[in-house]
């Protein structure tokens, strides 16, 4: 059964001031976290001791959700030292070192609702809607005469009626949203509670709703070398600055880009044929359509050397170089899906040499039914139901490229140590307050891990984006900025390309009175209502909240004046991930201090001329000289 809890603390690094919890029937709160712990433990005790009696049917196992569990479990760890040795590390799950599932030896289970419902809790409650509503901490701080929200949470009395109501609304509101979510899935509640992430829930529902399609695409099992080669063709979206500023521009997004290409295209079926050298060259040629538009191979992944024309202002092919994704001109080497390489040839790119090729004779439309169902539900639904289908349709594709090797933390035993050593995987033994732990690499072989499908989905998405913006450029429009499924232009896009909600067409997000684009995902816009829109992915939240268009203007001016290093912030405290602190045997509330600067002399994805505001793509040989790294490693 779903249960929820939340803690309010003395700032980001202080102790718990109060904890609230809701078991689906009754709401409780206390200034002592042990009261919640005793409540949770008592239910597990009754279930364990008297499970043979029919009279305990009303006592159901509770799964406790917190929004951003990593924060709350760290606070519980600090407040109740006795639980440090009670975590069952073998059953607990961390994703990228973030707590996703914590299991205690007595049966108490914690989950992170943020892994299912991404975003801040306030945004989730607002978009999904709740019966209890959501109180505004900003309003409460202003009404109480506090300096700001941080001052409010640090100093408001724990007996303050509004403060207590704020916590209650958050705890019960989260329960109401999770209850809506599980009912929309159609799963039994206990099965729903086993789904840890949005993507995991999406793949599970796809399996249940479209079993034939799931079986068809998941039947293939891959050797490690083949798996690695297919993953080389898996790239993310392109985010680039083509011009650092715009006046009177237009910001567009593609409606549901990834769901659109999933439904509109066919994907490889079963196992490919695989060759190198001359045989690979022949396979590539049989992938390309003949004079009648027929092709033997319907899909392929190739490693090749390609020439990209120097006069292409926006080149079509991605290359990984020195940790970044770039789109250069000149002679490049890489691994691509055939659909992307074939599309590049339409813009003058020439294949110099095919190194290896894996090709599929058969393809299938696995996702048409899924996308049709999602789009129909999404368009006709409102509020929480619309959010549910939006969440599902945008989460599915990433599951296919899930990493096979992941870090697992387990309780140390000599038997486990021997198994880990025998497998030759990386490991480290950690002495912690929770006992001796072993963090080690484990391999997963789930049948949904199909990286060639993920590679084709993202390739189709980039091809769609690229063809659309090249059509705009050909008609006299100028592309200022691009980000995966969005674009900023100097003129309105063709009316045939624009629609408010039709999948695959562009929607006007806002007209841009002024726009400044410093680097990918670091930009500011002022729309025609004089509303400032400031983006700063990767910046610490406390600094990001202070961003303004004026700050971006100052940064742009300093870059244009030749400053090579612009410090954005220095020494701002931020929290460590709970697991990292535990493994380091450190204080979970000890801050790490972060700094961030813009280094104008460090190479960017495109060469930027700050004084003029123009950019151009890198020539591959020039980029190799700039970074002292070769692009030809794939060909060795």
Question: What does this molecule look like?
Answer:
The protein is 36% helix and 27% strand. The strands form eight sheets. It has a seven-stranded mixed sheet, with helices on both faces. Strands 8-21-22-9-23-24-25 form a seven-stranded antiparallel sheet. A four-stranded antiparallel sheet has the order 11-16-12-15. Helix 11 (257-264) crosses helix 14, helix 11 (257-264) crosses helix 18 and helix 14 (368-380) runs antiparallel to helix 15. It is of the alpha+beta class and 636 residues long. The chain is globular.
Topology diagram in text:
Elements: E1 2-9, E2 16-22, E3 27-30, H1 33-50, E4 63-66, H2 69-79, E5 93-95, E6 98-103, E7 109-112, H3 121-128, H4 137-143, H5 149-155, H6 161-185, H7 189-192, H8 198-209, H9 211-218, H10 224-232, E8 239-241, E9 245-254, H11 257-264, E10 267-268, E11 273-276, H12 277-287, E12 299-308, E13 319-321, E14 324-326, E15 330-337, H13 338-345, E16 350-360, E17 363-364, H14 368-380, H15 383-393, H16 396-399, E18 405-411, H17 414-423, E19 427-432, E20 435-443, H18 451-474, E21 479-483, E22 486-489, E23 506-519, E24 522-527, E25 532-536, H19 541-544, H20 549-560, E26 565-574, H21 578-583, E27 592-599, E28 607-609, E29 614-616, H22 620-627
